[in-house]
Amino acid sequence: TIEKATVTVSAPRKSIYVGDEIPELSGLNCNITGLVEHDALEGVTLAYAGTPNSSQTGSYAIVPSGGSFAVGNADNYIVQYQNGTLTIQDNPAPTYVVTVNGGTGGGYYKAGDTVSISATVPAGMAFAGWSGDGVTFTDPSAINTTFTMPARAVTITANFKSSSTGGSTGGGNSSSSSNGSTTTTVTKPDG
Question: What is the CA radius of gyration of the chain?
């Protein structure tokens, strides 16, 4: 007696996100192993066990069945079928970048996350507050503060001013100017 060879027909595994279209099974291929030489098993059909619902997470078996030997003798084989799986998973929440000029706390955050930022005060300067991209800071005048991440990228700037007003021996004129993230105060001596 000749021992029969085992042919394994494995259905594919697929993953989609909630809201995606359920894949048509007619376009998917099975993995078939164990055939001898030029023998060929064709016409395997696939079906879902149950009706997949792409509006919620879940798993559904993809069940292979049928098929016939286009080349070779079916009496020489034992055909085993292995189910595949369609997995429907939640969409990952997108992240957005926070760029912090003059401080720390930048990185990638999801909308709604609480973002903690800290100013890095340069020597000779004093912290003058936070500004940037229409976010609302818990305390815009505090060196360490937070804000709620919007659903978009944001740039936050720590603003600084000179911590000394300079020296003057007489009267004089004083003026102040700002160049973005640094505010400088200049005092002119009488001339």
Answer: 34
Got the DSSP string for 85-122?
Answer: EEEEEPPPPPEEEEEEETEE--EEEETT-EEEEEE-PP
β-bridge partners, 104 = 118
Encode 67-79 in three state secondary structure. Answer: CEEEECCHHHEEE
Cα→Cα distances 179→126, 160, 184, Å: 15, 10, 8
Give 22-60 pLDDT, tens digit per residue.
999 876 789 999 998 889 999 999 999 999 999 999 999
Q: Output phi, psi for 16, to 5 deg.
A: -135, 170
pTM of the complete model: 0.54
The residues, ordered by sequence, that sit 6+ positions from 8 with a Cβ below 8 Å of its Cβ are 31, 32, 33, 34, 80, 81, 82
